Amino acid sequence: MLRGLGTAAAGMISQQRKHDTITNNIANINTPGYKQGNSVNRSFPEMLIALSGGGNGTNNDVKQIGRLNTGVFAEEEPFTFVQGELYETKNPSDFAIASFIEVPGVQFDASGKAVQEDGTKIFRPQAFFTVADANNELRFTRNGKFTVDSAGQLVTGDGLRVVDQNMQPIVIQGRSISEVKANERGQLFSAFTGEPILNAAGQAVQLRISVLDNPNDLIREGNGNFRLANADDIPEELGANDRVQVSQGFIERSNVDANQSMVDMMAALRAYEANQKVVQFYDRSLEKLVNEVGRV
Amino acid sequence: MNHSLITSKVSMNALQQKLDMIANNISNVNTNGFKRREATFQDVLTNVKAQPEGFMQPGRLTPRGLTVGWGAKLSQTQVDLSQGSIKPTDRPLDVAIEGDGLFEVVTDQVGTDGQPVIAYTRDGNFQFTGIPGDNQRMFLTTSQGYLVRGENDQPIAVPNGYQVEINETGRIMARDPLNPNAPSQKLGQLKLVRAVRPQLMISNGNNIYTIPDNVNRQDVVANYNANAPEADQYKISVRQYHLEESNVNLADEMTELMQVQRAYQLNARAITSSDTMMGLVNNLRG
In whole angstroms, what is the distance from residue B88 CA to residue B90 CA? Predict the structure, then answer.
């Protein structure tokens, strides 16, 4: 059977996956805190092709032609964690993180990646808001479009509670959120007196900002949330010297690049078309084989 | 089925809803006391296609599994209670609030508990309305005829023909123009509330907000007492002969409109593109 037919079909499917990813990026071009996903393809495992029927049939005489792989698949979707631009909403329950964490001795490129001398890749750590779902499992988000629910808790748009440094929900009791001011480390103060807002134990309340050393470990869950593969892993809290700024009254816009997405979408479509043509050529070869070669 | 097609369709729906909201804001650019609403998006729940152990190849960056997104949805709409600009008028019954306050009014609707529904408004375009059977007094109402409440939860009654003066704490005095030497009479105090959790209020049209049945009133609004010691910090004051204009900024809304329209176009392009792909599949066997 012709090997290339399956290869071209696999090419069509992987270009379709790429197109889906780009469409999802375009769809989220106005979603706060959205991080662009990138489709990465990988070729099928290589196999060694050998000539059959050569020599006297012993292994020593087998003539090897070379390596071949017979297809490609969509392997993964790493996210671009580049900072999105901050946009002022003047809404006191909106928060944004600007995260430019430095690692000593490492120079990151614009996409937040650095390749070490030994070839290993390091990614720029990223800061996230920490939220907890109904089972107290942690999620991480850059979508700081929060609101205050009827119990006074600071919650995300889908009702997950924003947690403080002790992993407790943040409760705005007896005052409106417009009477709360956050400083650039996420600590909450009274807008009138400038005094820190205290929790039941008398501690100053601060939004927990989690720092993910390798943001590629995150799995996207939808609703702007990311989780870690192992729910028991708790990332460290923001360090005192990390270059992270929390801004109240701002949101972080989606970091999707519309131009790049449009070009990528056209490229995916044309690559899909090219693969379709190859499938057609194989089909014609088969047509010849079936209808002409066997004709008596 | 083609995922791209579903993704774009879901997102175009959400964008259409945002466009509706912008249109509503723009059409209320001249409504007194109107508070604009804003909408935000969230990405739709992502599913992860499972991948077996063998997919962990060298060079791979992320944990196992291929994430598949399904577009964006409208996650929440929020009312923006920021101050609108205050416009001077010559009507004594035009009252504007500066700061985070609201008037309390009694609507003509009846709630589930059999009592009239209490509502809140920033629209201080008041008028006098008579009540049948009481021809000595006029009552302060909103332009829809809802009674404005005083601090003792009673309506504010003004003797016929009297002139009304409202000071900045909301105290209402009235004097008889036919008898200029008589001292002005204290008629009461406008009831003002602070919106503690404004996002829980429902916008009911006619510029009024109500509190849903399943939410306690004290969780949403707090009574404001201008004479209490902590009142200074809230900086709420009442201005007679003034009206609060809509807080819609036309330039901001047009910018948002353009963004939404372009995003809509991009999604429409993605639909065209996935339609082309489906056409290619259909024509595989010429």
Answer: 7
Asked whether the beta carbons of residue B273 and residue A266 sit closer than 8 angstroms, the reply is yes
The overall average pLDDT reported for chain A is 90
CB contact under 8 A, B197 and A76: no
Contacts of A87 (CB under 8 A, 6+ apart): A96, A250, A251, A252, A253
Alpha-carbon gap, residue A177 to A175, rounded angstroms: 7
Q: Is A241 left (phi over 0), alpha (psi -120 to 50) or beta?
A: alpha
A102-116 pLDDT per residue, tens: 998 889 998 888 998
Average pLDDT for consecutive 10-residue bins of chain B (286 residues)?
Answer: 88 95 95 91 87 85 89 90 92 92 91 89 91 86 92 89 90 88 87 89 88 86 83 86 94 94 95 94 85
Contact status of B260 with chain A (Cβ, < 8 Å): yes
> Tens digit of pLDDT for each residue in A144-199?
999 998 888 999 988 899 999 999 999 988 788 888 999 999 999 988 888 898 88
Q: How many beta-carbon pairs below 8 A join chains A and B?
A: 190
Grouping H, G, I as helix, E, B as strand and the rest as coil, residue A49 is strand
- The pLDDT assigned to A214 comes to 92
Q: Do B259 and A30 touch (CB under 8 A)?
A: yes
pTM of this prediction? Answer: 0.88
Across the interface, whether the CB atoms of B66 and A223 are under 8 A apart is answered no
Residue A96's SS3 state is strand
Q: Which residues of B264-280 are buried (b: 16+ CB within 10 A; e: fewer)?
A: bebbebbbebbeebeeb
d(CA B147, CA A114): 67
- Asked if the Cβ–Cβ distance from A147 to B82 is below 8 Å, we say no
Minimal Cα–Cα distance from A21 to chain B, Å?
A: 7
Distance from CA of B164 to the nearest CA of A (A): 33
From A212's Cα to the closest Cα of chain B, the distance in A is 13
Q: Which residues of B touch A171 (CB under 8 A)?
A: none
Nearest to B263 among A29, A78, A176 (CB): A29
Cβ atoms of residues B192 and B103 within 8 Å:
yes
Residue in chain A nearest B260 by alpha carbon: A30
Mean pLDDT, chain B, whole residue set: 90
